[in-house]
């Protein structure tokens, strides 16, 4: 049975969304957005404990979402955000972390088990 802990996944790749959903749905309440604009709306409605964020998406990319979230004046400005992206260049990693990302995982270099471990570590579980 899933806990009351809400994880918002903002990812436009349906394969990764489904994989994360199947892996985490029995442990957490999962909410999904296909881009940053949809993520903003779902964040306000669901008050997630953690956000998994892709950077390259249509309509509103992850950097814009990160900027908008960290500039908020409510409690959501401090929600942990773990980037999961194919952008592996150090400048992108540094930019995301300087904008307030809690952690940065490169899709090609990380397994689902490593993502789950990072989620648990970030949530203090």
Describe the 3D structure.
The protein is α/β, with parallel strands linked by helices and 125 residues long. It has a single domain, classed as Rossmann fold (3-Layer(aba) Sandwich). 42% of the residues lie in helices and 18% in strands. It contains 5 helices and 5 strands, in the order E-H-E-H-E-H-E-H-E-H. The chain has helices spanning 14-24, 36-46, 62-70, 90-98, 112-123, and strands spanning 6-10, 29-33, 50-53, 81-85, 103-106. The chain has a 5-stranded parallel β-sheet, with helices on both faces. Helix 2 (36-46) runs parallel beside helix 3 (62-70). The longest helix has 12 residues, at 112-123. The radius of gyration is 13 Å and the shape is globular. The mean pLDDT is 93.
């Amino acid at each position: 049975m899933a806990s009351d802990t809400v994880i918002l996944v903002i990812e436009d790749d349906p394969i990764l969304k489904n994989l994360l959903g199947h892996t985490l749905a029995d442990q957490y309440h999962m909410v999904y957005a296909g881009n940053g604009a949809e993520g903003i709306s779902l964040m306000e409605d669901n008050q997630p404990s953690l956000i998994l964020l892709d950077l390259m998406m249509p309509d509103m990319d992850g950097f814009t979402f990160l900027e908008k979230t960290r500039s908020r004046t409510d409690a959501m400005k401090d929600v942990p955000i773990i980037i999961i992206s194919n952008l592996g260049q150090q400048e992108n990693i540094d930019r995301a972390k300087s904008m307030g990302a809690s952690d940065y995982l490169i899709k090609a270099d990380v397994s689902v088990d490593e993502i789950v471990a990072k989620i648990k570590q970030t949530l203090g579980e």
